[in-house]
Amino acid sequence: IIYALSPYHFARGMEHFELSNIAVIPVGLWLAFCILNDDYEDIDKLISRKTSLLRKTFIFAASVYLGFSYGYYPAFMMIVMSIALLIKMLRKKSYKPLIREGFIIYITGASFFITTLPNRIYDQMNGTNLLVTNRYPRESEIYSLRLIQLLLPNSNTRFIFLRDITNKYNAASIMINENVTAAMGLVAVFCLLFLCIWFFYSYIMKQKLEIGHNLDFLAITTIIIFVVCTFGGIGAVFAYFISPQIRCWNRGSIVIVCLVLAAGAIQLSYSLKKVKKVWIGVISIVILTFAMFDQLPDYEVGWQDNIKQTTAEYEDFFNELENIASNSMIYQLPFIQSFEVAEKNDEGYYASSLPYIFTKTIRWSYGGITGRDEAAMNLYIQDGKTLEFLYGIIEAGFTGVLIDTYAYEDAGESVNSFYTADLGLDAIKSADGRYYYYLIESIKSNIDSE
Length: 450
Description:
Blueprint: H1 7-14, H2 24-37, H3 40-46, H4 49-67, H5 72-92, H6 103-126, H7 139-142, H8 147-151, H9 160-172, H10 186-205, H11 212-229, H12 234-241, H13 253-271, H14 277-295, H15 305-324, E1 329-333, H16 354-358, E2 363-364, H17 374-379, H18 387-395, E3 398-404, H19 413-422, E4 427-429, E5 435-439, H20 441-449
Parallel strand pairs: 1-2, 1-3
Antiparallel strand pairs: 3-5, 4-5
Helix pairs in contact: 2-4, 2-5, 4-6, 5-6, 10-11, 10-13, 11-13
């Protein structure tokens, strides 16, 4: 529960939605423990053939599930599983685990490769797109993971004095971006400190508890993941000498959260083995309550009211458009390339995709991937404020124009003036004044008469 309520999860729930599926991380950690602890030859001797087949099927399904998740998570967890495999090989002094336990990593990697096939096939048919997702090695450090951001409280904690510390750091530091989502939460911080202490204790004392090998694995893996993801770490080496396509190494913070919480859970379970169940329940409730107070966002009551109102207004506006222009094409102004481009003025990232969300039958001009959207881009001339532009889009099959005033410095005054004052067209406006729609059928009639 504490992991599910991690600050990272809340931060990803509204932005980068695909990253909110953090459930795959514990699945990957479980697979790593299967590699680390299971002796498949001994297990197969102890259980029935049917149970053995069922178990292997479940492991196979979990590996496929992990491989089919968002790209960063399989990559991170294959590192974790590879560490487990290496430890297993060193412990056994054999290469056999590469075949037996290694199949978990191979299946995960193959599953991830399958998810890339549609893009690879499309590139073979249409050529490689050199413009979209063009990464630079320096970005691996701009979006890297920092130790202080792991340890600082999350910016929405209910401990106000701790929240102020984080806000001061974010205001004074440099290269603050999505790495602000790296905060682990106070319970995970305590677990990380424990794991660090355990690592040194285990190395110095040389005495192993029955849970020692699991804690050693979690400690070593946490250190390696941090070294990979931190500023100037192995991730930067990878970006400069192999490929810069993986750049947001700060996303490895959720893997560290999972690792340290697992360590805390293992140690707590071991320490409370002889404690009465009632006290175990009390201790669990206290820890969970503290974690919830720290990690649940401290939003004001009604913080979603404006979002709900705006959503309702847009639904009404686009429903009206769909009644008027069902199954037709509408050109969106200003022209904005799709994805990986800076927002225009107050438009907001990816805001041009909103019409797609609120309509079913209308075909919109936005959405062509950067590098493959020449058709819509070539139609956009004279900022969409001339008859030549209108003749071009009408000939292409468009029957209307939708203007997003938030994307203009003058809030769309100039472009709206062209359509209302110069052309005499009437606009259908959204309730908040953001969107203006103009039906250009009359101009099409003039072209037909000519």
